[in-house]
Design a protein that fits this description.
- By secondary structure, this protein is mainly beta.
- It has two helices and nine strands.
- The longest helix has 20 residues.
- It is elongated, with a radius of gyration of 29 Å.
């Protein structure tokens, strides 16, 4: 009985000190550190995918490069840039355009891009290209959802290219690299 009472006394003393050390309502002091913003204003992208013309079902391999500059201290994030893209199948096409980007969240990006498309680029001689190619205005609308790994991103991308009354669907993966100057 003597040992039981000593054990109970030790447990009571131990419980009291353990309880008093743990303050349930206190807020721990966290060090507030000022870190430099990790926002990268410049973004380069390599697109690889396919272009499907909805009127005739023709599918072509598409690849391209894009550059976007994102303005600092603007929310939602707004950017401007340029891109070049080629679609290669029976008839080759080349697109040059400027892009206006709206990025409401870090992962989601919407793009509107007035562009110029050069169609039927099958000849290797420059004079024949100018005679046979068709230059038209193209309007591109689309978006992507990015998965970020530090300053590298992988983004499933989809665009709708409108040329006159024809619509092409461009879809694929964009591999991006963001950097500061």
């Amino acid at each position: 009985m003597k040992y039981l009472s000593i054990l109970m006394l030790l447990l009571a003393l131990n419980f009291g000190t353990a309880y008093s050390q743990d303050d349930w309502f206190s807020i721990p002091d966290e060090e507030i550190t000022e870190t430099e913003s990790e926002f990268h204003h410049h973004h380069l992208g390599l697109f690889m995918g396919a272009s499907s013309q909805l009127n005739n079902g023709e599918v072509a391999f598409a690849t391209g490069l894009d550059y976007t500059y994102f303005f600092p201290n603007v929310y939602p994030i707004i950017g401007v840039g340029a891109f070049v893209e080629g679609a290669f199948s029976k008839r080759s096409e080349l697109i040059f355009g400027s892009a206006f980007t709206l990025q409401p969240w870090d992962e989601v990006k919407f793009v509107a891009a007035p562009s110029v498309i050069y169609q039927n680029l099958d000849s290797l001689e420059i004079d024949e290209i100018h005679k046979t190619s068709q230059v038209r205005f193209l309007m591109r609308f689309g978006g992507s959802y990015s998965f970020h790994f530090d300053n590298v991103s992988v983004a499933p991308t989809i665009y709708a290219d409108v040329v006159g009354s024809r619509v092409s669907l461009v879809y694929g993966i964009t591999f991006g690299y963001a950097f500061k100057p």
